[in-house]
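Weekly structure sync, notes
Attendees: PL (lead), two postdocs, one rotation student
Agenda item 3: pending single-chain targets
PL asked that the sequence for the first pending target be pasted directly into the notes so everyone works from the same version. It is reproduced below exactly as submitted, 252 residues in total.
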Amino acid sequence: MKTFLSMLSAAVLVLAATTGWAAPKGETLVTTAQGDVTLYRIQHASFVLEWHGQTIYVDPTQGAEAYAGLPTADVVLLTHGHGDHLDSNTLNGLDLRKALVIMPQAVADEIGERFGHAQTIMANGETVHTDAGVGIHAMPMYHLPPSDDAYHPKGWGNGYVLTLADKRIYISGDTQGIEEMRDLDNIDVAFVCMNLPYTMDVEEAADAVADFAPAVVYPYHYRGQDTERFRELVNQREPEIEVRLRDWYAPR
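Predicted structure, written out during the meeting:
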């Protein structure tokens, strides 16, 4: 029996080495009245949050193997239909049988009704609460000036504000420094995008973040941008904001 188990363990190690996956490392995002929120960075705009027995996948991409070792999703948040956020191959490979899958109408139009009764369409401004106590508010995300032919038209996608016990977490999606972002209040942690021409530059992102002043901000979706400059600009205006710089593009 021991020999069999040793052979099985060796086989798993070989599989991990040949497929390139490794369980993502977690870090404490914030502490709530009902325990810590743990962040697992996947890549670019994809990440996982774990809190109070609930696991939330945000724009899962990079293949199902990138999520090996993580709990299965209870909630999946899809922001919009661009390929670095909506990856059908990853969604098809994940075990989403128990997940509530939340998306804007444009994503539902693209993927159909593959998730059945678990598929929830949210428009900007709507709020839902899961039975497990996760609050989800759909935020606008769009390019300025708003237009129907913009790369991200207003109403086409969702950012999200999560309420986990006494803490609020903002996920920008792909957007510029829009009024709705700047008017946010009481945000404990924010994930804010930046990269031209797809979202906004570092200067605009820093200006918007300084306006709504989250306690903590993570720049993400920042490929090729100077995040050190982002931190400098944010803290010039709001020294109390903690800017957490992480490598969202490290090979796994």
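Discussion points:
- Confidence is low (pLDDT under 50) at residues 1-19.
- The radius of gyration is 18 Å.
Action: rotation student to compare against the earlier draft before next sync.
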